[in-house]
């Protein structure tokens, strides 16, 4: 995350004061330098609309412009600034959060010979996030300068060409005549997962995009931020790192005051971190999302600058919320209601993220689709699906899944993830839940036995594509992106996406307002009664 690096400004006017605060720069008197092709300029303009913005091809050019007095500050990624400039550079960090972040992504050549390269890269990023590998890389390169991931030999005829500028430590830089850094370790991980040879193509930072467009590289991995102006020319992966942005000015003597402000700000944030009453209060907060679900996109669309933490399953995410490692968790309403039965200190925000339709997934053009659709329609008409939901949502005693006690002609392999109560979970060592009963009801209608294959959620779709499973049922939302890979049945359930937080100790503003309105109406009724 970017920090605010401040130095004595190269003032062109005697009356211009040195920058000591981020928001002091919100004036036409101050000019802020940003990287030409990054999204930082737009973000700075949004937060500091009165400031002047000047673009530079890279950080080095902006640094010299700052030293010459052409600009008053540099807005750049925190990690890169702190690793590029030491105490002798004349730069100082202003520890004030301006609320500006930057998503670092992998840029992709749309004409790559590797089919579905974007989908593959995104799946790997999700997997690395869920395993905590990306966080481990970030922590490693914040402290050391030696590769964490070992290089490995690959026997492959294909070569994936990676463009990097090698001038943005700790992401990619040169040491002992070798290009190293977090991004290079990420390249090694991609090489291993894709089982393909890689070639580093060192490219000047302002020519990275051109390297893809001219087919000189397949990927950009170089602390690279997504930009709107080139979105029609290249593809972008999901973010693999989100960092704050810094403003750089020439050093002043107010560092002691800044340190004092930091401790006061952090103390205030610690006191207020539990006070989450609405989606707006989640801006900048740590929000848990299960890898591979549609909630990731919903959170980023609705919540301003979320710090998304990825989890492989709901159990791990709930535990992290318990331990206060995250501020909130996004999930389906039915799942949230089940969790609240065991967590009296949790509550669900009234505002909803979105509404989802769940379907049974199957391979493209599967002959099972019209059959499954017919079964779901019948189960909906006779009220059987609603009865199944009520069974698992309202029963306070131990219930069991429908037994497979019918004669079957053959067996269907059905993928699921048994960590998503009340839809699918283990009870007494047996698979149970809403989805399990729905699938078994369909199997009984078709005279087929069901064999459930329990797997991680992000493996469900690949299991269908690779013909390891016949169907998948796991409260899976029907989306256009997924429809490009697989087919869905008609929706068998509809649900809302919500956010679960730790219940604030103080009453919510909404509750206070409701209480005032209640007593106001009560007193008015009393007056009317006596009149």
Question: Summarize this, please?
Answer:
The chain is α/β, with parallel strands linked by helices and 531 residues long. Helix content is 35%, strand content 24%.
Distinctive features:
alpha/beta, D-Maltodextrin-Binding Protein, domain 2, 4 domains, 9-stranded mixed sheet, 6-stranded mixed sheet, disordered N terminus
Structure overview:
With 531 residues, the protein is of the alpha/beta class. It has four domains: 4-101 and 244-264, Periplasmic binding protein-like II (D-Maltodextrin-Binding Protein, domain 2), CATH 3.40.190.10; 102-238, D-Maltodextrin-Binding Protein, domain 2; 275-356 and 499-504, D-Maltodextrin-Binding Protein, domain 2 (3-Layer(aba) Sandwich), CATH 3.40.190; 360-488, Periplasmic binding protein-like II (D-Maltodextrin-Binding Protein, domain 2, 3-Layer(aba) Sandwich), CATH 3.40.190. The chain is 35% helix and 24% strand. The chain contains 17 helices and 28 strands. The strands form six sheets. Strands 2, 3, 4, 6, 7, 11, 12, 13 and 14 form a nine-stranded mixed sheet that branches. Strands 15, 16, 17, 18, 19 and 28 form a six-stranded mixed sheet that branches. The chain is globular. Mean pLDDT is 81; it is low at 1-14, 253-273 and 526-531.
């Amino acid at each position: 995350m970017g920090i605010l690096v401040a130095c004595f400004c190269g003032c062109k006017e005697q009356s211009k004061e040195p920058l000591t605060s981020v928001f002091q720069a919100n004036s036409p008197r101050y000019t802020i330098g940003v990287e030409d092709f990054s999204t930082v300029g737009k973000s700075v303009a949004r937060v500091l609309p009165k400031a002047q913005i000047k673009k530079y091809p890279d950080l080095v050019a902006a640094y010299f412009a700052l030293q010459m007095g052409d600009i008053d500050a540099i807005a750049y990624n925190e990690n890169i600034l702190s690793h590029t400039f030491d105490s002798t550079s004349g730069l100082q960090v202003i520890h004030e959060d301006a609320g500006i972040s930057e998503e670092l992504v992998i840029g992709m050549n749309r004409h790559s010979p590797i089919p579905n390269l974007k989908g593959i890269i995104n799946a790997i990023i999700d997997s690395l996030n869920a395993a905590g590998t990306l966080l481990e890389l970030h922590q490693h390169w914040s402290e050391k300068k030696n590769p964490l991931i070992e290089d490995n030999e690959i026997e492959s005829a294909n070569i994936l060409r990676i463009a990097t500028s090698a001038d943005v430590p700790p992401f990619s830089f040169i040491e002992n005549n070798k290009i190293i850094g977090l991004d290079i370790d990420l390249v090694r991980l991609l090489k291993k997962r894709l089982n393909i040879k890689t070639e580093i193509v060192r490219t000047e930072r302002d020519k990275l995009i051109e390297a893809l467009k001219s087919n000189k590289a397949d990927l950009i991995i170089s602390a690279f931020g997504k930009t709107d102006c080139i979105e029609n020319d290249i593809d972008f992966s999901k973010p693999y790192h989100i960092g704050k942005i810094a403003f750089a000015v020439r050093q002043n003597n107010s560092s002691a005051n800044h340190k004092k402000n930091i401790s006061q700000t952090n103390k205030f944030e610690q006191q207020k971190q539990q006070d989450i009453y609405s989606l707006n209060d989640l801006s900048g907060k740590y929000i848990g999302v299960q890898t591979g679900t549609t909630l990731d996109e919903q959170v980023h669309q609705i919540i301003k600058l979320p710090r998304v933490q990825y989890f492989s399953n709901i159990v791990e995410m709930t535990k992290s919320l318990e331990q206060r490692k995250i501020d909130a968790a996004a999930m389906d309403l039915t799942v949230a209601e089940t969790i609240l039965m065991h967590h009296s200190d949790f509550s669900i925000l009234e505002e909803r993220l979105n509404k989802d339709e769940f379907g049974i997934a199957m391979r493209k053009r599967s002959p099972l689709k019209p059959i499954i659709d017919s079964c779901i329609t019948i189960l909906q008409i006779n009220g059987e699906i609603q009865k199944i939901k009520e069974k698992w949502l309202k029963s306070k005693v131990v219930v069991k899944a429908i037994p497979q006690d019918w004669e079957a002609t053959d067996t269907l392999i059905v993928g699921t993830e048994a960590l998503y109560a009340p839809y699918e979970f283990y009870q007494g060592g047996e698979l149970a839940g809403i989805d399990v009963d729905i699938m078994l009801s369909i199997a009984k209608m078709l005279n087929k036995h069901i064999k459930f294959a329990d797997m991680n959620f992000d493996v469900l779709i690949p299991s269908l594509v690779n013909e390891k499973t016949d169907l998948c049922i796991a409260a899976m939302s029907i989306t256009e992106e997924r429809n490009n890979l697989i087919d869905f049945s008609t929706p068998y359930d509809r649900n809302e996406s919500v956010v679960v937080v730790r219940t604030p100790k103080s009453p919510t503003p909404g509750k206070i307002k409701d209480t005032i309105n209640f007593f106001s109406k009560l007193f008015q009724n009393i007056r009317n009664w006596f009149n």
